[in-house]
TrEMBL record:
Domain of life: Bacteria
PROSITE patterns found in the cross-reference section: HTH_MERR_1 (PS00552), HTH_MERR_2 (PS50937)
A Pfam family per the record: MerR_1
Example of a GO MF term: DNA binding
Protein's name in the database: MerR family transcriptional regulator
UniProt keyword list: DNA-binding, Repressor, Transcription, Transcription regulation
Keyword Transcription regulation attributed: yes
Length: 135
């Protein structure tokens, strides 16, 4: 099938399909006319890629995991290297979530402090930090 048909069948635009190919996630043969030609397995492969991207995996992670993928969802066949890679990615996500939670807490603190001070004006500075001129 040509890239347009693969795009229609998977709901993934042709630009993304070409990106998946460039990343080594998807394979296409070239016809005599130079057009990409995909086999029937490409539909399943694209669906697997989309699910794995939805799990927050990078294209590099996915390239490593795809040989172990079975089914559309997909299920991943466990092997020690695969499990180690997924655990490492999960730890990175947990670390990012911790940093985001800390940033959120700090921002909420600043908002609460600003709300408390909302009615008060500083005698020397306005809200933009500009010096007030005495009247």
């Amino acid at each position: 099938m040509l890239i347009g048909e693969l795009s229609r069948r998977t709901g993934v635009n042709a630009h993304q399909l070409r990106y998946y190919e460039a990343q080594g996630l998807l394979e296409a043969e070239r016809g005599a006319n130079g057009y990409r030609e995909y086999d029937e397995n490409a539909v399943l492969r694209v669906k697997q890629i989309r699910h794995l991207l939805g799990a927050g995996l990078s294209s590099e992670d996915i390239a490593y995991l795809l040989p172990c993928a079975v089914g559309e969802a997909p299920e991943l066949l466990g092997c020690p290297e695969l499990l180690a890679a997924m655990r490492s990615r999960l730890q990175r996500l947990d670390d990012q979530m911790d940093r985001l939670a800390q940033s959120r807490d700090a921002l909420a603190h600043y908002i609460a402090a600003a709300d408390r001070m909302a009615g008060e004006s500083h005698p020397l500075f306005d809200c933009a930090g500009q010096e007030r001129t005495p009247a």
